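### Sample
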Amino acid sequence: MIKYIEETVTYLQDKGFENPEIGIILGTGLGQLIDEIDILKEVSYNHIPNFPTATVEFHKGKLIYGILEGKKVVVMQGRFHLYEGYTLQDVTFPVRIMEKLGIKTLLVSNAAGAINLDFKKGELMLIVDHINLQGSSPLAFKGVSLLGERFTDMSAPYNTQINSKFKAIAKSNNIKLHEGVYASVVGPQLETKAEYKMLKIIGADAVGMSTVPEIIVANHLKLKVAAVSVLTDECDPNNLKPVDISEIIAMANKAEPNMITLFKSLIKTI
């Protein structure tokens, strides 16, 4: 993996990706943040050596470098998932690349279903902790200790200072921002009634199919990390209706302006 990382970083540096300060993973619900960036360079994933390729139809596939609120940023426009057939090392490879390029902070967005029924679709949730239900770890491979401490501490995986800033920004902009625990599952199928009941019992406030692997690797690399979910549906096992993916995407798009306000305002302060 070290050889692959070196090849990829060299390629991107040669393309002009110079010393970004902040990495951003644009999941469902934050795609239009691209319009706010002064783009200096962009490269399709399928042109980057050793990079996976986004296969989900509503995820783009570009790595973008530019200026946002006066800061140099490197942005993943589209992410990777276990359910696409990738390994956890594939899914998190871009985080390792962004860190080698120079980022100190990683900001992440995603779409999630609300397990906590006090939370409503269209609202946002600041992730304060997570539950890994993906069956393995992105750190479970030979040689991981050459890239960082094998036994990575996860007592506080989400940066409390950044989270405090997010809460203050939300309050000043009248944005409803819940705080909660995000459970990450493999997917791509959605959950059964019994699974939603289980998730509530074990302490999840929302469920999705991403983010946790990237957060684990970011902590392995000692990056400052924060993540926000767009709540796209309400997962009430006693009143469960078939889910329409197009409705989920529409709900994410509806919440996008608030997500963009949070991220732009935060980046000003970093």
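The mean pLDDT is 94. This sample (Purine nucleoside phosphorylase) is used throughout the tutorial notebook.
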